[in-house]
Amino acid sequence: MRRTGLRYLPLLLLAIAWELLARLELISSSALPPLSHVVVAWVDLMRSGELVSNGYASIYRAMTGLGLSVLVGSLLGIFMAWWRPLNAFLSPLVEIFYPMPKSALIPVTVIWLGFGDGSKILLIFLGCMLPVTIGAFNGARSSEQALVWSARSMGASRLRMLWDVVLPSALPELLNGIRTALALSFILLVSSELIVARSGFGYLIGFLGADGAYEPMFAVVLTVAFLGFAADRAFQAFMNWMLRWRT
Amino acid sequence: MAHVTGVRDRTSRGWRNAPASPFVARIGWGLARSASIVLLLAGWEILARSGTFTPFVLPALTSVLERILADAMSGDLFLGASATLYRALTGFLIAAVGGISLGMAMTRSIGIRWFFDPIISVGFPMPKIAFLPVVILWLGLYDVSKISMVAFEAIFPVVTATIVGIKGVDREIIWSARNMGASNRELLCQIMLPAAFPQIMTGLQVALPISLIVAIVTEMLMGGNGLGGGMMSASRFADSPGVFAGIVEIAAIGYCLIKGMSMLRRRMLLWHQEALEPSTV
């Protein structure tokens, strides 16, 4: 307990420095409102329900898009490793689209699906699919040949081998790919909501900022940042739990 | 003919051995690889021409290519691309230099490590793009705020990769360098940095696409020319060939940058073991 306290002490120091800088008027309070005011604004936002309803919209979009991309991406990656013709056919496409800056898709998804949930879900799905695919592909391809041979010699069917040998050995890389996708989904979510949306965290930040209400805006920004951090830590814990069989 | 197919059947992966010369094999393999891209482009054109979708939702490939050509002739493409690249690459360079120095400082001094370690580990997974309105508030709408946003987002992978790389340097190498009388400075420049370089390069390869993504998002939000800004204004005027042209241009630039980076890696790491192995992506 004391060690973690000492470890995160610098963050506390930063928070105190923030409060002092704003209180002593070293920086004008419109550019940097004191942290205590931001906390008060956060409580107000929670009470009025604005933060909860917008947060619900954002989380729904991120989770749906990410869930779809994990489903499609991991299937695609494993089958690309499993069946060579599919790999030969799809890998050039993956190679071309993987380095594409995904934010370029924002205007197109708006053209296709409008300003609502659909365009954000499609954007997150398209943006997050390839990291998952590549993770699954690399993982499945690297399954040890000796394991595959021994499973085959013990009479495992192809489907059985996929489930018992290829999938577990693909899991570490697949989960790493999903972790990248998780971080990417937050970036895409917030930026697309900042650009075009009528609800969600990004919309709330843009709306409050345009209004000059900087204290609640800082509160929402910090909430999003904290959620991104918490989601990553939770996924890391899930990864460790899933991979506990590894020595 | 029957004889040939017989041979191909026996070597189960026939396509590897079958063609008469490596030259023919190479062409055939190239054709097979480009098949999906050709199919995708042809499917786009046919779908757009068939009238299933309105030209607003899916403009024909040819009209998009015409637009790109017109942009290239008028010089708009060059101006936009250079503005975007200037912002993305300046931010990337700041992140690279700052990230490598911060990472090295963190491995060398306990105090610096104590202060920055929680900031890095909390800050890395955060969606830092959410801080964009704050950065606009502080630094305005022009290049400074865009570049600092890019650097802010791209520095984290570089710092963590540098730390991992330096910590992973073999002890024996350091001991023998020390034994032969290397000073701290020599140890850092001649031993640590080269040995950590593959890891650092990996960090830079993660940071580069992030810089492009952020540069484009900031342009979309704040305007100011650039490819992202161009796409956004095209989308406001419901000019969908312009939007699709932007996507193709951005995808092409991203592809070239990332390919260039991995070529640079192979060139700079010729001495390293990894250069012997075939590389993917």
Describe this structure in words.
The complex is a heterodimer of chains A (247) and B (281). Chain A is mainly alpha-helical and 247 residues long. Helices cover 82% and strands 0% of the residues of chain A. Chain A has a domain at 51-200: MetI-like fold, CATH 1.10.3720. Chain B folds into two domains: 2-50, no CATH class; 61-276, MetI-like (MetI-like fold). Helices cover 80% and strands 0% of the residues of chain B. The two termini of chain B are 37 Å apart. At the A-B interface, helix 1, helix 4, helix 5, helix 8 and helix 9 of A face helix 3, helix 6, helix 7, helix 10 and helix 11 of B.
Write the layout of secondary structure elements.
The complex is a heterodimer of chains A (247) and B (281).
Chain A: H1 2-23, H2 35-48, H3 50-82, H4 84-97, H5 106-113, H6 117-141, H7 145-153, H8 158-195, H9 201-211, H10 214-242
Chain B: H1 2-10, H2 14-17, H3 22-50, H4 61-74, H5 76-108, H6 110-123, H7 132-139, H8 143-167, H9 171-179, H10 184-222, H11 226-236, H12 240-268
Helix pairs in contact in B: 4-12, 5-6, 5-8, 5-10, 5-11, 7-8, 8-10, 10-11, 10-12, 11-12
